[in-house]
Design brief:
The protein has 7 helices and no strands. It is mostly helical and 176 residues long. α1 crosses α4.
Length: 176
């Protein structure tokens, strides 16, 4: 495989794992989904063009968010004459807060992954039925020949158990 193909493959993997974070960051700043879609596409195009300058082994998430931030700043600059916009210091504050919130979500996702590994195979199967396939609890109950009420209770218990595990895991990480 040529070096160009390897770079494209690596970029595709990195984008796939970071696209939600990049998009969430943009939406958190511009609040308009149409503008956010356009800015996300522009960000991805720039990431593709500049990927050869990305230092392998460094933090792709931080690099991509920096590019997204610059795309949003350029967008704001172009829109400045058309709309009254927040000043740059407020924008910077919102941008920093968005980055912090994204890191918090990432940390919670990592903790969730860890907590899911502690569940029984039956519990994992139930969660997959509900969330991977989007099947309704009533339908799952019918297919498993179980009372709907008992499955609602089971999902409530799983939700609470995972919530506690996530909070405990994050607290443990912060102590370390």
């Amino acid at each position: 495989m040529s070096q160009i193909n390897k770079n494209h493959e690596q970029l595709a993997k990195l984008l796939k794992s970071h696209q939600n974070k990049i998009y969430a960051y943009i939406v958190s700043i511009v609040h308009n989904l149409s503008d956010a879609d356009d800015l996300f596409q522009e960000t991805v195009m720039i990431l593709c063009r500049k990927f050869e300058t990305f230092e392998q082994g460094s933090n792709f998430g931080a690099w991509s968010l920096t590019i997204a931030k610059n795309v949003v700043l350029n967008f704001r600059q172009k829109k400045r004459n058309a709309h009254v916009l927040i000043n740059n210091s407020v924008f910077e504050l919102v941008s920093q807060q968005s980055a912090i919130e994204i890191k918090t979500v990432e940390k919670r996702q990592q903790a969730l992954t860890s907590c899911l590994k502690k569940l029984t195979p039956d519990d994992i199967h139930l969660l997959k039925l509900r969330f991977d396939t989007g099947e309704k609890i009533k339908s799952i109950a019918e297919n498993m020949d179980k009372p709907v009420k008992s499955l609602y209770k089971k999902f409530s218990q799983l939700h609470e158990s995972l919530r506690e595990c996530i909070n405990r895991t994050i607290a443990d990480w912060e102590k370390a």
